[in-house]
Amino acid sequence: MAEAGRIPLRARAVFTALALLALALTVVRVPCSLPAPGWWLAALAVPVLARYPLVVLRHASGYEIGLDPVVVLFLAFAEPRHAALLWALSTTVAQGTTERGPWVRCFNAADSVLAGLAALAVAHLCDPGANPSGVLGVVTAALAGTTYYAVDYALSAVAVAVLGRAPLRSALWDETAPVMLASAGGCASLGYLGALVLHQDAAAFPLVLVPLVTVVYAGHAFSGVEDERLRFQALFTAARAQHAARDSREVLASAVEAGEHALGNSDVRIVSERPDGGIASPLGQGGPWLAASPKGTATRVYQDDDVDVLDLLATLTGDSLSRLALVSELEQLATVDGLTGLANGAALARALREAGPGAAVLFIDLDGFKAVNDEHGHDAGDALLRAVAHRLRRSVRTGDLVARPGGDEFVVLLPEADGPTAEGLAARVVTDLARPVSVGGSTVAVGASVGVAVGGGDLVRRADIAMYAAKRAGKDRYARCTDEMHRQHMEARDLPEQLRGAGERGELVLHYQPIVDLALGRVDGVEALIRWQHPTRGLLAPDAFIPQAEESGVVDELTAWVLQRAVADGAALHAAAGRQVSISINVPAAALVRGVLLDELRHGSREDVQLILEVTETTLAEPAAVPVLEEFRRRGVRIALDDFGTGHSSLAALRLLPVDIIKLDRAFTADLPGDPRAGHLIRSVGSLASALDKPLVVEGIEGADQLAELQRLGVVLGQGFLLARPAPLAQVLPLVAPGATVRGLRQPPLTASSASAPSPAQVP
């Protein structure tokens, strides 16, 4: 057996007792005379044969069968008188020179001596004459050989039991015992064969050495080849299993399995520290150890090849563990937001897939974050995001997931929450995030708009819808997504696709609002305002679909249609008025820069139509817009600056920009006539327009007192509901007829939606 750890005190006592018993029995059997010198040479075969055991069932439990007992049977017949002495001395030398611990060598020597003496005693009892010939000799040899291996096996089982490595019952018998005993008996029979040849014809005795040497050599060679095959197979299997392993537990399990397969007859295990016995290799620096020790009643000694294969397996396993650790780190990086340490979008998506039907989501968007970035820099913005993340962690419950998908947006996933619970948490988040934050030496205050969605599918989308509702309601608050809110969002989402081709299907119409000469009451021009005759929702005003059209790019198609329709209607206006009546159309910046109108104007312009393009100050701020507007002017199209006074145009810029007409925003007329300052501002703008030789149109005239005040201020052109509401072309044509006036005329609204004053941001 091989020493696998510290020898317990009881094992030492048993080993000592066996050694003393072996010594006593040897002394009793020693005769008065010494054997001839030639027999001492025969005894030297024991240490040699002990070095080359046969391995039986290596792939299973791997018993090693020593060939030194061959000498026992040989001596039992060839030199029975001195057999006990020769065997005891030779086997003690053989076991004493092995590379094992002292207590193990003590036991192995006692074990071999006692087994040999028992075999010699059985041989003497069966055949006192020690005649190998005949049936008696064969029976004697068989019984003696069986006795040797039975005693050796039993003593080894006792040793395993007292060492605490296995219960005595299981150590005394396992499934490989019959195969081992049969193999051992066959090998030991070579000793009987040698004695028989020596007895019959001493000259032929050297021939007996041929099968013995052949068995030793062939067995050793085969064992080496089989060892290499098993080791390669075990390492290959381990490499494949570890490559497919999903966690460290599977890697370590494959290492243990491969180690037991490669070493055979070994208990392979993962230990935290290097054990005292057996062999072991570290799984990386500072990591656990892969250790191996003999299994059960095994009596094997680990060779250099065993150490090498264990080292290689440990290296392979250590690399696999490092790979898994790296994969785990990369997975963490892939699921964690690097700035805040919160879960990122990927982790949130996975958590949402695993969430149950009772989950809820808070969608949080910071109010005023862009201003912090612009005024204090990106470092301050990052510090603010980290502070917000810290507050959110403290606000949520244990088990809630806080994620930052990107930018200044955060999402909280509540695995289980009803409506009141989710709304209560949303209110707490709004309160916590409303407190000022110190970043970069400055104190900043940003609120948060929070959307809440509870139960059902598309939690994040629905919470996002509610978040925008909270922003529209004034920010720094929360809103919960309702069925109606979701329905409206879905309708708005589908609008761009429904808008495509609406002009070709005849669903788009233009209404015209007159621009009136306030002194004469005559229509000087009209502004074209688009309407959509929706198949199911009726006539829609621009505010119901233009924002979605601008986001989706469909606004280009709408703008082109408006220009085509306005040019066509311009001929009818010219014919009805007997003079030129200008048509103003609102142009979004994107369509202007992309050249949509230039292409349409090239194919559909008419000399009897005076076009005016209304653009906002924001559009004029686009560098690419100015060259396009100048090209329009070269083609006879005039440019009107719409909503003047609401942007950032300077007087110097107004002088240089390609603008022909100024339209004063309705905000200036709203306070007339009660606020004198409003009148002073209008008078100043009028003087400015006159100085620049640019006509002024005042918007938003809705009351007679406003009209009277504007006339008193000298305003020439005006537009508003008091004068005329937007109406279809057929209703506008009589207003432009010769001699017609529209002062104070009100046209009834077509629908509640179209009755609202058109917003410049909503009218193309």
UniProtKB/TrEMBL annotation:
<dbReference type="Pfam" id="PF00563">
    <property type="entry name" value="EAL"/>
</dbReference>
<dbReference type="InterPro" id="IPR052155">
    <property type="entry name" value="Biofilm_reg_signaling"/>
</dbReference>
<keyword id="KW-0472">Membrane</keyword>
<dbReference type="InterPro" id="IPR043128">
    <property type="entry name" value="Rev_trsase/Diguanyl_cyclase"/>
</dbReference>
<keyword id="KW-0812">Transmembrane</keyword>
<dbReference type="InterPro" id="IPR029787">
    <property type="entry name" value="Nucleotide_cyclase"/>
</dbReference>
<feature type="transmembrane region" description="Helical">
    <location>
        <begin position="39"/>
        <end position="57"/>
    </location>
</feature>
<protein>
    <submittedName>
        <fullName>Diguanylate cyclase (GGDEF)-like protein</fullName>
    </submittedName>
</protein>
<dbReference type="InterPro" id="IPR035919">
    <property type="entry name" value="EAL_sf"/>
</dbReference>
<dbReference type="InterPro" id="IPR000160">
    <property type="entry name" value="GGDEF_dom"/>
</dbReference>
<dbReference type="Pfam" id="PF00990">
    <property type="entry name" value="GGDEF"/>
</dbReference>
<feature type="domain" description="EAL">
    <location>
        <begin position="492"/>
        <end position="740"/>
    </location>
</feature>
<feature type="transmembrane region" description="Helical">
    <location>
        <begin position="204"/>
        <end position="222"/>
    </location>
</feature>
<dbReference type="InterPro" id="IPR001633">
    <property type="entry name" value="EAL_dom"/>
</dbReference>
<feature type="domain" description="GGDEF">
    <location>
        <begin position="357"/>
        <end position="483"/>
    </location>
</feature>
<keyword id="KW-1133">Transmembrane helix</keyword>
<feature type="transmembrane region" description="Helical">
    <location>
        <begin position="179"/>
        <end position="198"/>
    </location>
</feature>
